[in-house]
Amino acid sequence: MEKPLICGLRFHDGSRRDFDPLTTISLKTAFVLQLVMSSIFKPITLGSMEIKNRVMRSATTSYWSDDRGILRPEILQLYRRLAAGGPGLIVKGHLYVQDSGKAHPGMAGISHDFHIPQLRKLTDEVHKYGVKIVAQINHSGIQSIIDRAGPSPYAGTGWEARGLTSDEIDGIIEAFGDAAERAVAAGFDGVQIHGAHGYLISQFLSRQVNQRTDEWGGSLDKRMRLLFEVYDSIREKIVERVPVLMKINCDDFSPRGFTIKDSVKVAEAISTKGLNMLEVSGGGVSRQSKLSDRAQSLDPELKEASFAEYARQIRDATRPMPVALVNGIRTRRCMNAILEKGVADLISMSRPFIREPDLVQRLKAGQATATCTSCGACSSREVFGKMMLRCHLDEGREARSETNDESR
Ligand SMILES: Cc1cc2nc3c(=O)[nH]c(=O)nc-3n(C[C@H](O)[C@H](O)[C@H](O)COP(=O)(O)O)c2cc1C
Ligand code: SF4
């Protein structure tokens, strides 16, 4: 009897399937099968939340809410398109927990019950597509446009911030808990504490910004106290019902700022408290983007992921808590490498979804790379509150110099 021609198909999880291409499967089908079996399309569970694949849309402000912080209706359409595009998880752009914590014009709020109905419409839209959505809750501290106040007095270029009183800190902690409760009432599947990018929690973690000498500043234990009190306040309000996630800097990349050593310690400590997922980002107050090179991998498959090497260290210290990695990831090759080489458990992206909301479907169909060039035109402060978030690349606008280090 004539022997069948046997071909082997190697899957990203290391397994191999043999088949006779002439009788069982065409090469085209095999290619499609290989894509579908790719690690990025495998589900994952974060606490009680099941996510259909490993691709998440990192928090991205649409900078298009009204003066009271209520989402404008066009934002619902933007999220409908995003959800239809099939990511496993969407993190809603940051929401201020107190009016004084508003970071920029057009930022949406979750500081009052009147914010809930419009947020509910948003979560309902996203859920129609089987996609999970969490609320990123934030206070901008010294970056506020209402009342610049942070851990201690701070002078920026052309501006000054005052230090918060202990009573004000207590009020902010309570506001995070109340915001989480509203997020659940608005139908979010979880909350993400914004602990990165030089906002209030990240300011307290930073030695450079936090000069307090009381129980909120000094040693790392004292600098991380605000984060822990915020975490407890959230858990007290929503108990174990929904997952709590956090976005953290692997490093501020600022002189005397929060470092990878600090980040590993904070990540370890918060993981033992039951955090359900940590998203690793980078860049604090007065960050210097060239410093972020030290977090990059020399592995050619991982190089585009700006913080790959630091994310690996954080994941190693916090297993089995799932870790997501954000910043610079653009190719399917890199996404698979991140998962298969144990750098992170989820792939998080922001700008690629602005340009291609249906990116996950495109990747499934065989597209190898996102077409976002990281030009940064969509995150220029000039457009905040003046127009809704969109990709400007095809509009002939002069793009800002190329950067791979976009943080809000
Ligand atoms: C327009 C815009 C808005 C953003 N808004 C937020 C935000 O609300 N919260 C946040 O944590 N990060 C925000 N970011 C940062 C992204 O979540 C992400 O960390 C950064 O863009 C790097 O990822 P990327 O290379 O995939 O874009 C924003 C970025 C952009 C471009
Ligand atoms: S404007 Fe630039 S950075 Fe923003 S989505 Fe378009 S290509 Fe990407």
Structure report:
With 408 residues, the chain is an alpha/beta fold. Helices cover 30% and strands 17% of the residues. The chain has an eight-stranded parallel beta barrel, surrounded by six helices. Strands 9-11-10 form a three-stranded mixed β-sheet. The protein starts with 6 loop residues before the first strand and ends in a 44-residue tail after the last helix. The model is unreliable at 1-5 and 397-405 (pLDDT under 50). The site of iron/sulfur cluster has 13 residues, from helix 11.
In short:
With 408 residues, the protein is of the alpha/beta class. It has helices spanning 27-36, 73-84, 116-127, 166-185, 200-205, 220-223, 225-238, 260-272, 308-318, 332-340, 351-355, 359-364, and strands at 7-10, 16-19, 44-46, 49-51, 55-60, 89-96, 108-109, 132-138, 149-150, 154-155, 160-163, 190-195, 244-249, 277-281, 323-326, 346-349.
What small molecules are bound in this structure?
flavin mononucleotide, iron/sulfur cluster
Rounded mean pLDDT is: 91
CATH hierarchy: architecture: Alpha-Beta Barrel
Please name the CATH topology. Answer: TIM Barrel
List keywords for this structure.
single chain; 408 residues; alpha/beta; eight-stranded parallel barrel; 12 helices; globular; disordered N terminus; binds iron/sulfur cluster
Helix and strand arrangement:
Elements lengths: L6 E4 L5 E4 L7 H10 L7 E3 L2 E3 L3 E6 L12 H12 L4 E8 L11 E2 L6 H12 L4 E7 L10 E2 L3 E2 L4 E4 L2 H20 L4 E6 L4 H6 L14 H4 L1 H14 L5 E6 L10 H13 L4 E5 L26 H11 L4 E4 L5 H9 L5 E4 L1 H5 L3 H6 L44
Parallel strand pairs: 5-6, 5-16, 6-7, 6-8, 8-12, 9-11, 12-13, 13-14, 14-15, 15-16
Antiparallel strand pairs: 1-2, 3-4, 10-11
Bound molecules: flavin mononucleotide and iron/sulfur cluster (SF4).
Iron/sulfur cluster binds next to helix 11.
